[in-house]
Design a protein that fits this description.
The structure is a homodimer of 365-residue chains. By secondary structure, chain A is an alpha/beta fold. Chain A contains ten helices and 17 strands. In chain A, the strands form two sheets. In chain A, strands 1, 10, 11, 12, 13, 14, 15, 16 and 17 form a nine-stranded mixed β-sheet that branches. An eight-stranded parallel β-sheet of chain A has the order 2-9-8-7-6-5-4-3.
Chain lengths: 365, 365
């Protein structure tokens, strides 16, 4: 049932549709000019409605992290990348089944993953595309050298059921403001070039070079090897983006409406959005900046969260809200906040808010 | 469908039923000996199945934080306490409706909450019991002095639709090991006694004195004014309990089964349980101890989480698991982990695991 924001049950996430469209159009325009494919990471919105909007804005396909997400997003695209290693029988079987009727690629960094996916693909009678995951400095996953990448690529090439498609990487370590990223992206580009050269010398081609993140989105041209980018957060943005200077508060499409439930402790207000709504994620570029930004009270600081309470220090504010008032919070990290909601409110200008389901919420498998 | 743990899709939470029963029996036995009512906080398990077990173990009723949880738990008890202020029309209306056919109490710290609940109760033709929330040192919510408590109690007494039942508090600031809690609990008891004395002098009675937490559970006798306690985490326990010395690893009933998905970065393994499974909550008593405890590799340290990855430093281990292996994690804080799952696996000894629904998951309203 459509509702006015003033009457929504709090805490809740309200998405400003106009800001979403502006964010999508900006990325699409940049990518078009640079000849890059956009393959948005759906982890941010976990919604088939928003995924469809991304495809309408020219996305070449979608990115997911988990098989459960792949199953949902297979409903809106026939071109999926799981940017996450599948190493067990169950995951590989589900991916192989999805690959029967669509392009499915998986990013991997071990022969175990290759063998497990190959066996599943053969059993399902499908072919799974493989991107070799390269560690470009984030040190989370990814092979460590061109030589390791070559060994894994050869392993993949030999495996019936698999198709070597290229490489992927995640530059999560580059979170500096965009205009300071050039040296890091230049080093990254050289690392990617070295890998491609070793492959080429050995008769292997990286047709797909998939990288990118929201902080580096509009600097992707500094890595000319890229064929596609996988920004996620850019669709909604958050305080990580704002304090990392890759978005402004006006670019934040997802805002949390909360109610003040207590002002009993002097100098403090308590909001009904705790870690069950905001998560405990700190702000990457500013870890001591509190648990989100209170839009109407910019001098307030969310100093402590428990599951259902946000304790907000208002001693620096020249006025403070009273019990029952509503205030808006931009969270530090929007992706896991969305994951905590069964539905969010979608707001078109001049229309009442309506709920949209977070279809791919909670898919940890 | 029942399954063996080795074949469960990971990451998943497996609950050991025998440990749950032992934890419940221990608390029930202590409370019986001391003449205390147990009103478990259901936020930890969010499950009507486990709530029923608590009631079978003698619980006098249940505690919830949110109206959505109250609606679910009303299915298994006719005695509910919402230990959280309701200050808006929607929440109060739903509580007033629930109060028509059962005992519903709410802990509040403002006249706004009292007025809103009273109006809703009158409109619904019900009566809502009120506990005045006292700040005993946690400084989150709660009136600040016996005089403020008296003023609010008088306000409640005058409001048609409300019934003044007593006081509540949450000693969340007392997290020291149980055998070091006596001084803090003595001070707390004196604070409670002062409030009761002021009320008595003014003809008001605190029939219900509701307090308690898991860390202070077995020290509740040091606050002789208590009539009931509201432990939550005691049913499952977690690393907060273990490192806070109020439980052992053997008392941890909820364990997270994970799969190693990458070992590409030297000295590190990556598990498929990130912040979407473990949450970003730090361990209260040991904030630098990592994001949970790896049971099979006690020298491993979960140093970094992203949404779907746990990066585990294994340089201190004399052996390390390989890609595809499964390892068990005890999380820092089990309550928000449960909230991230639609269902958990319930394991009776000698039987396959079966899923049970997390009925009250995601109820932020």
């Amino acid at each position: 049932m459509p509702e006015s924001i003033e009457d929504l049950p709090t805490p809740c996430i309200v998405i400003d549709a106009a800001i979403v469209r502006r964010n999508l159009a900006k990325a699409a325009s940049y990518a078009r000019e640079r000849g890059l494919g956009v393959r948005p990471h759906t982890k941010t919105h976990k919604s088939t409605l928003v995924a469809r909007m991304q495809l309408e804005h020219g996305a070449v396909g979608l990115t997911v992290a988990k098989v459960g997400e792949a199953g949902i997003m297979a409903g809106v695209t026939d071109d999926l990348l799981m940017a996450y290693p599948a190493v067990d029988r169950r995951r590989c079987a589900e991916l192989a089944s999805l690959a029967r009727e669509r392009t499915v690629r998986v990013g991997i960094d071990s022969p175990t993953a290759a063998d497990c996916l190959a066996a599943a693909a053969r059993s399902a009678g499908s072919t799974i595309g493989i991107l070799v995951d390269l560690d470009v400095g984030h040190h989370r996953t990814g092979v460590q050298s061109p030589e390791e990448a070559l060994a894994l690529a050869r392993h993949v090439e030999k495996a019936a059921g698999l198709r070597l498609d290229g490489i992927m990487f995640f530059p999560g370590h580059i979170a500096s403001p965009p205009d300071e990223q050039a040296p890091a992206l230049k080093a990254l580009s050289e690392q990617v070039e070295a890998l491609i050269a070793v492959w080429r010398k050995n008769g292997l081609e990286a047709k797909v070079v998939s990288g990118g993140s929201t902080p580096t989105l509009f600097q992707s041209h500094l890595v000319p090897q890229l064929t596609e980018i996988r920004p996620g957060t850019y669709v909604y943005n958050d305080m990580n983006c704002v304090r990392g200077e890759c978005a402004t508060l006006d670019d934040c499409a997802a805002r949390i409406t909360t109610t003040v439930v207590s002002t009993a402790v002097p100098g403090q207000i308590v909001l009904d959005a705790g870690s069950k709504t905001l998560t405990s994620d700190r702000c990457g570029p500013a870890p001591d900046s509190g648990h989100g930004h209170v839009l109407e009270y910019p001098d307030a600081k969310i100093v402590k969260l428990s599951e259902e309470h946000a304790q907000v220090d208002v001693t620096a504010c020249d006025r403070a809200p009273k019990v029952g008032d509503r205030v808006t919070v931009i969270p530090n990290h929007i992706c896991p906040c969305i994951n905590l909601q069964d539905a969010v409110y979608w707001k078109e200008q001049g229309e009442p808010a309506r709920t949209i389901k977070v279809d791919a919420r909670g898919k940890v498998f």
